[in-house]
Amino acid sequence: MDKLNLMRTDLIDEATEVVQHRTEKEKDTLYESPGIQMNEERKGRVIITHIETDASGAETIGKKEGTYITLSVPTLTAEDADGFEQLEQQFILSLHDIHHQLHLTPQSKVLIIGLGNRTITPDAIGPLAIDRFHEEMFSLPFEHGQVVFYAPGVTGQTGLETGEFVKAIADKVKPDLILVIDALAARNQDRLCKTIQLTNTGIHPGSGVGNARNEISFESLGVPVTAIGVPMVVDAPVLVVDAIETVFKVISSQIGEATKPSSALSVGSWLRSTEAPINVEAIKPIFGEWSGWSSEEIRALLQEVLPPHHQQLFVTPKETDTWVTRHADMIQSGVTKWLQDDVFSSISP
Amino acid sequence: MDKLNLMRTDLIDEATEVVQHRTEKEKDTLYESPGIQMNEERKGRVIITHIETDASGAETIGKKEGTYITLSVPTLTAEDADGFEQLEQQFILSLHDIHHQLHLTPQSKVLIIGLGNRTITPDAIGPLAIDRFHEEMFSLPFEHGQVVFYAPGVTGQTGLETGEFVKAIADKVKPDLILVIDALAARNQDRLCKTIQLTNTGIHPGSGVGNARNEISFESLGVPVTAIGVPMVVDAPVLVVDAIETVFKVISSQIGEATKPSSALSVGSWLRSTEAPINVEAIKPIFGEWSGWSSEEIRALLQEVLPPHHQQLFVTPKETDTWVTRHADMIQSGVTKWLQDDVFSSISP
Amino acid sequence: MDKLNLMRTDLIDEATEVVQHRTEKEKDTLYESPGIQMNEERKGRVIITHIETDASGAETIGKKEGTYITLSVPTLTAEDADGFEQLEQQFILSLHDIHHQLHLTPQSKVLIIGLGNRTITPDAIGPLAIDRFHEEMFSLPFEHGQVVFYAPGVTGQTGLETGEFVKAIADKVKPDLILVIDALAARNQDRLCKTIQLTNTGIHPGSGVGNARNEISFESLGVPVTAIGVPMVVDAPVLVVDAIETVFKVISSQIGEATKPSSALSVGSWLRSTEAPINVEAIKPIFGEWSGWSSEEIRALLQEVLPPHHQQLFVTPKETDTWVTRHADMIQSGVTKWLQDDVFSSISP
Amino acid sequence: MDKLNLMRTDLIDEATEVVQHRTEKEKDTLYESPGIQMNEERKGRVIITHIETDASGAETIGKKEGTYITLSVPTLTAEDADGFEQLEQQFILSLHDIHHQLHLTPQSKVLIIGLGNRTITPDAIGPLAIDRFHEEMFSLPFEHGQVVFYAPGVTGQTGLETGEFVKAIADKVKPDLILVIDALAARNQDRLCKTIQLTNTGIHPGSGVGNARNEISFESLGVPVTAIGVPMVVDAPVLVVDAIETVFKVISSQIGEATKPSSALSVGSWLRSTEAPINVEAIKPIFGEWSGWSSEEIRALLQEVLPPHHQQLFVTPKETDTWVTRHADMIQSGVTKWLQDDVFSSISP
């Protein structure tokens, strides 16, 4: 969780362009966009979105070239043993999927890094996952030194940039793969804690802006990096913009009798809350001119009007402590099983 | 921090009536309201608001009869040693002020309870303060058994209602005073972490709704109870309503050229962000009809339109971990000094 | 773990009389002692000792009247998944055994107390078990309020005697059973972390001396109390006496060619390290007169000669952190399964 | 704290040769030994021992060539504010003393490493000191990146040798000085928690045995390394040997009427508990032949006779939690003041 820039979303399938082009009629277009391959399927309660981009496609959606897999369980709750079970199964399959070209062997070394600040509950997912590796140390089916794990703490806590810390350790361990576990920021509060994203493009704090010192990626380290992230927070201004737009859309659709009762349960509805175009004329009497504004325009107004403190607030679920523990456990368990069955077993598939 | 109802504010000076009547011309009226005595002064960087209500005044503002003292440092930051120093000085004086009629003696017993869930950062202020008492145990100037302290954890963690837990301990200890330290919910995000409230009316989870089982007060326990609270969170829907209203007000005032440059620095401005009436006609073209709605009407719309998850989100500063630690330290330090100098010294004033 | 008196043993089968009479030829006598019924059996790797005493038998062994069950796995290691699995199975059976006369029903209420100081690793077993109950809260098969749990912390940390704390909570909860989880002191360092003791006689800090204020028992609370304890420490002077006596015995047996190769693997050998009489005349040239002294005489000498600091030291295994976590987990898991299957299931056996 | 070899002492002034030669008449000899310069003085309640060795002197005492400073407060208790205050004053002076040849400047970079396992109370001193640096981060008078600190955890917890971890970070940070904070093992239980040792020879796990991979020193890292250690544990067999020898000595001196009432208060008595030669003939009737054995012979017997578990036990004070916290606080405070006044102030002395 980047402390300075939570305005952005870290989830690829919240990228404006992906969401906007996902309306029913435009879906085909996106699927056929040069440089973007997108596939969506449902296994039980889990929606799996697989996106591959090359350089041109990456530019289109404002993300980095590579593979992105998001697993979502829209109906997940913090006490949902079955949901987490299903999520873990797909997570293990996705770990296999995203790493199958790396040709890891039983002799491979893996460095696991848990990012984040353990003193802020929703940001503790990385350190908590590392704690779980420590607790389970004696029963891990690895030889000593094959799996190395650290939770470096946040920059402010140690005096060394996180990216520099990881580089230092990686230079020493010389791993064949680095897994980085981190909390993410989402745009849509419905996504909070219900999605897990894997990407082989690594971690890019400051996102598009590109803060090379903090980057943790193949480019910066010379080692394949897979980032595993769970959206745990929404930035406060993002929440406000999202809430205002939701008001406009819902009222617009109610006025237009545009109720789509069945769609609420379809796969797509999870990701396409913004799909229906707002009937601005219909709602303008109630909400005025700004109901026709773009998200960016509303956000710009808020940034000008709201006090600066507002930018320094984040939003997280009241059960954030339970969520963060369960996701950390699930990730540790899934990674361990994948390493055991897929990497360190003598007859690797 | 009550897990189910963060809609409310726990701060008396955010009570709608107090805020509404605080406009310059109505101030006198409130000050003279039957049953309400309000006094506001500034000492260095600290604004001290002292409110006394009798039964009739309490009904007017929708809070319980008694004394409320709020100390605010609008310019406080998490790393502000001077600000916390000034706040602690006034806090100690306020502890003296609010307890002077209790006639505590060096033989008095004090029970200190730290409420909240230590696994959620902003809710950990009570348990952290109790931790500090433990750490400083050996240097505390009290005889064994004169000061008893517990952090009972939240109801969901233990199976016993918090109020029942406190009653059980109080029946055993038979204290002359109970201090309860807790995180509060605020309405205005500007207040977060910058205010501390003392009241001899105790703790009333569920507020107006009145959940007697959870109440921690003189009425429920037969012992004087002083609640010490710091606003650490804003409920997400409250934040959204507040943000929308701020947009309306700021734009309205800009259109009306109603800029009041000096007021930004006055004592009152901290508490009277809502004072200027919105010029609805001026802003209606931009924001539509709802710019004339009341807070309650906007809130009702949001509650209908936003998904239920939204109600289960809270907002807190990104530096919540530093804030909560500093406030817990300050409260522990202030309470200790007050007990030492004012209660347990042989020549009590 | 009592902070002031670790000289004693908290394990009944280390009681001098039990151990002394356990030599092969005297065993029958003890078994037939009026008021003492002792039964020992082995299930897999677990040795189960069941002792029932009435008032006269209790006086003989210097312990309180009631039932004592000790489960020991002499070959247990901290990373021994199989050993802990076997221990848990017998632990669940023993919980059934020791409570079967209480006639608990699905409507019964159970209060679980984790004693000890979480900041001292080997003393943290009680608080850690309570932490585990908290973590598993949402998946516990109990209705709210049927199971209440607390870790009160040590007296020095809170200002209220632990026994008073438990009484306060018990008066409120009115449970049908109180389970108390605690770290114990052992006499023999071989027993450390490899034994678990259950007794319906409760907790008696200060042991025989009888410190009524601290007692947690049916007599002090009016509610059945079952104490669940694991020996985690040996008092330093006890370790020294034990080491000196072991030297005398081993050398004596070597000189006398009194090697008993098979006994090392028998059930009894675990508990009867002191059985063979020392041949004092044979070893006196090497070790002098004191090789003929009793344990009490050696201890008295040490107490006189060693500096007072020595009395304030305790001994614990280097892997104390792993041990304490595993035992806390096992106890939480075993108690939960017993409550679920035996108490709260609709058709209780 | 090395997990496998606690037999040794980590304190130079417990080195057999230093202690043995410290008897009054031989003192001069040692002081004049080629390659060893030893100076002892008392400031208030603190005894300061300063030892400088060159290669030949280092060989004599079985330690590494360099500077050793030990600060001892024989009367220190865990709740002793005055004692810790005096110790901190001397500690700051010793930091100045041991570093004055390094010519640190306000531009120097310092890497601080807290060794040890935070889940074992007496071994947590390093991690706790690092925690304190984190807590005080915002008030530290350093520029970002000038002071970098980490608590790497133990090898078993991370998969990377501690020495390798420190090398990785040091290669990145390129510090001018590395401070390593660690718990030590003592031989004499009287020393526990009452001494702090500084040495510019670094950390040498496995001591004489020499495990180069774990070494943290100028030789292994190419950067000056100062080790700051506090004896927190005694190995169980060491405690037993020490106790037996103490019995022999005390009884021997009592028989010989060799009471030296004044020496008990002299500076030397703290370090010279072994000074008086045992009158073996006088005590042989009571204690036998072995009262004339050397420490090594007694230890060899114990190692043969005591069960292997015995070697895996350590001894620590019952107040180990308070001790470890106070020492960690004192070290953090002393290091910060030294850095501020001596290194980073613009006019460095």
From TrEMBL, chains A, B, C, D:
<dbReference type="InterPro" id="IPR005080">
    <property type="entry name" value="Peptidase_A25"/>
</dbReference>
<protein>
    <recommendedName>
        <fullName>Germination protease</fullName>
        <ecNumber>3.4.24.78</ecNumber>
    </recommendedName>
</protein>
<dbReference type="GO" id="GO:0016787">
    <property type="term" value="F:hydrolase activity"/>
</dbReference>
<keyword id="KW-0865">Zymogen</keyword>
<keyword id="KW-0645">Protease</keyword>
<dbReference type="InterPro" id="IPR023430">
    <property type="entry name" value="Pept_HybD-like_dom_sf"/>
</dbReference>
<keyword id="KW-0378">Hydrolase</keyword>
<comment type="similarity">
    <text>Belongs to the peptidase A25 family.</text>
</comment>
<comment type="function">
    <text>Initiates the rapid degradation of small, acid-soluble proteins during spore germination.</text>
</comment>
<comment type="subunit">
    <text>Homotetramer.</text>
</comment>
<dbReference type="Pfam" id="PF03418">
    <property type="entry name" value="Peptidase_A25"/>
</dbReference>
<feature type="propeptide">
    <location>
        <begin position="1"/>
        <end position="10"/>
    </location>
</feature>
